[in-house]
Structures are given as structure tokens and as C-alpha cells.
Amino acid sequence: MDMKTRHILECLEADAKITHEKIAALVGVSVEEVSRIIGEMEKNGIIRKYKTVIDWDLAGDENVYAIIELKVSLERSVGYQALVERLYKFPEVRSVRLLSGQYDLSLTVSGRTMKEVAFFVAEKISTLDQVQHTTTHFVLKTYKEDGVILHEQESVTRLPVTP
């Protein structure tokens, strides 16, 4: 990938609403070239989706998020792909990642309540034949999402302790 294309993609990743005109000015190419490159990236599947990062807590519509680590056993000559395809089809699953280390896969899941997420893990994930062990970590607060800071630094309200 050339640097011009990389810069265009970085502009879009930082701000999905940025105009082709602004990208052209930042990168130093014509608007037509920006449009052509973006069209090619969309056609080739490099650009998958344009996304908005929403602070759901601030919007007053809270969801519960959890990170689920999975230890799995694989059948001979069958890799992770079949299991991963099954996992990412669940609407509760926001992301699936292959890991190195103690666990094989990491899922980010969402639900309306902790109980809903716990039942999803117990009934849909833990019951899969390949899943040997799960560990669930509930997200208590998100400070930064996709490079966007969601909560500014909180001011200290405690009085300082003096001798």
C-alpha cells in the first residue's frame, strides 16, 4: 500500500464523516483521486463499514458489555474457522478475536443486563462442544473506544490530607 492510500484510510478511520475535499487537501491529491481510491477500497473490502462511536451511557441507554475468554479444543484438521463462524453469527457477539496465551478466543458481547449476558454465555457459548472453559469479565466503565476518549478526566473532589 502506498503512503497516499494509507493517509486517506487514516483520515477516514479518524473521522468517517470527513469530506473528500478535506481529505484531498490533507493528503495533497485531487478530490477525484480521493474518490477513486475510496471507491476501490470499498469495492475490495478494505473499507468494511463507516462507524460512529456513541457514548451510550451519556445518551442514557446503557448496555452491559462483557469480554469472554474461551479455551477451546479443536477437531483434527479443522481449525478455528468453523467455531468462529458459529460464534460471530450470534447477535450478542460484537467482536471475536484469536488470541495467543492461555485462552484461544476472546469475545466481546453485549446485552441489556448482566443476567442476560450471563445466560447467553451459559446457554449459547458454554454448551458448544469445542468450548472447554470460559472466563467472563464484565466491563464496568469504558474510558476509550476505537480511539475516542469517552470520559474526560474527572476532577478530584476529595480534600487534600495535610499533616
What characteristics describe this protein?
163 residues; alpha+beta; four-stranded antiparallel beta sheet; two-stranded antiparallel ribbon; 6 helices; 6 strands
What fraction strand?
Answer: 15-25%
The computed structural class is alpha+beta
| Largest beta-sheet details | 4 strands, antiparallel
Could you give the order of strands across the largest sheet?
Answer: 2-3-1-4
Helix content: 25-40%
Shape: flat
Report the count of strand segments: 6
Pick out the low-confidence regions: none
Topology as a string of helices (H) and strands (E): HHHHEHEEHEEE
- List the quaternary state of the chains: single chain
Average pLDDT: 90
Gyration radius (Cα, Å) is 21 Å
Q: Work out the helix count.
A: 6
End-to-end gap: 61 Å
Walk me through what this model shows.
With about 160 residues, this protein is an alpha+beta fold. It contains six helices and six strands. It has helices at about 5-15, 20-25, 30-45, 55-60, 80-90, 115-125; strands at about 65-70, 95-100, 105-110, 130-140, 145, 150. The strands form two sheets. The chain has a four-stranded antiparallel β-sheet with strand order 2-3-1-4. A two-stranded antiparallel ribbon has the order 5-6. The longest helix is centred in the N-terminal third of the chain and has 13 residues, at about 30-45. It is flat. The N and C termini lie far apart (about 60 Å). The mean pLDDT is about 90.
